[in-house]
Amino acid sequence: MTNPRYGAGDLGPGESSPGPSSFPGRRPRRPISFPGRTAPPSRTPSDLAVPQVVSQPEGALPPSDFESVARQVFGDRFPLAADFARLLVTDGVVRGLIGPREAPRIWERHLVNCAVVSEMIPNGASITDVGSGAGLPGIVLAVARPDLHITLVEPLARRTAFLTEAVDALGLESTITVVRGRAEEAAGNFRADIVTARAVAPLDRLAGWCLPLTEVGGRLLALKGASAVDEVAEHQAVVAALGGGSPQVRLCGTGLIDPPTTVVEIVKERDVVPPAPPGRNAGGRSGGRGRTRRG
Ligand SMILES: C[S@@+](CC[C@H](N)C(=O)[O-])C[C@H]1O[C@@H](n2cnc3c(N)ncnc32)[C@H](O)[C@@H]1O
Predict the structure, then answer these.
(1) Of residues 113 and 3, more confidently modeled
(2) Which of 184, 211, 153, 195 is nearest to 276 (CA)?
(3) What is the CATH number of the domain that holds 173?
């Protein structure tokens, strides 16, 4: 079973470590096909007399007892959500981005679980999704909310290739940008009203990566599992030192999904100059406690 703290994406065999950062993102192109949506085979007149049943891979459509919830959450974008689901349970599984056991629960545990977070996102907001993996929650939010402008930050080439192909296949090029790199390397390159992250890192590390990418007055929305309350208690002093306000635990999708999605919301109150990495102190030797500000 997937650890909710670390999410659906698995660092499986063959995962490469990130190469040099690539800001802005590369967009390798390789077409993704949609099983069940590809051109039908040529038919003979006798074929036409027999109703064709197109079989769907497991998870491509929501379970019947969950379909009304999925339709309610995605509205008229439900068919696009189904395209993404199909992609995740086919290419996503084959390419090791989604565990095969996630397919039957892809809608409830992943798609709808992420989409309900849009309750907390105002119209037209800019979003940076850190550690998108297979596009959770970034692509899901773009599917549910065409008004958003979303940047997906992901260091692993195998995953950015999938993300880029998925964005193209879903026709989301005008609202999503894929950036290959680590969040901490992206600081200074761009900022967003809201930074999302799901199952990426403990809250202290996450705040250190994400608050520099957040506009002052903007928010970090960290999708967490049952650990949320403990993480807030453990890390709120670090969050404050990083310029964040008091972290609040919110629930999204209450009455729709059980359990609702737990989100730790942190308002960025001020900019903080990050400490220098070890070995970069003024004397050029390791062991320094912080950066010397010049000028
Ligand atoms: C467990 S996966 C979660 C993926 C996705 N958010 C989900 O919920 O399924 C963690 C992701 O964070 C990415 N990641 C790890 N360190 C990162 C960093 N410093 N900056 C950005 N992404 C990072 C990993 O490459 C991986 O795709």
Answers:
(1) 113
(2) 184
(3) 3.40.50.150
Ligand 1 pocket check for 15: Cβ under 6 Å:
no
Tell me the binding residues for S-adenosyl-L-methionine: 131, 136, 183-184, 198
199-258 per-position pLDDT tens digit: 999 999 999 999 999 999 999 999 999 899 999 999 999 999 999 999 999 999 999 999
Total structural domains within the chain:
1
Binding-site residue positions: 131, 136, 183-184, 198
**Which residue CA neighbors atom 11 of ligand 1 most closely?**
131
In a domain, 219, yes or no: yes
127: left (phi over 0), alpha (psi -120 to 50) or beta: beta
Query: Model-level pTM?
Result: 0.81
Q: What's the 251 CA to ligand 1 centre distance in angstroms?
A: 22
Question: Which one of 200, 220, 223, 224 would you pick to mutate in the ligand 1 pocket, going by the greatest count of ligand atoms within 8 A of its CB?
Answer: 200
What Cα–Cα distance (Å) separates residue 12 from each residue in 9, 98, 101, 165? Answer: 9, 10, 14, 20
CA of 131 to the centre of ligand 1 (A): 3
**129: helix, coil or strand?**
strand
In a domain, 132, yes or no: yes
Q: Which band of pLDDT confidence, cut at 50, 70 and 90, is reported for residue 293?
A: very low
Give the model confidence (pLDDT) of 166-197 as tens digits. 999 999 999 999 999 999 999 999 999 999 99
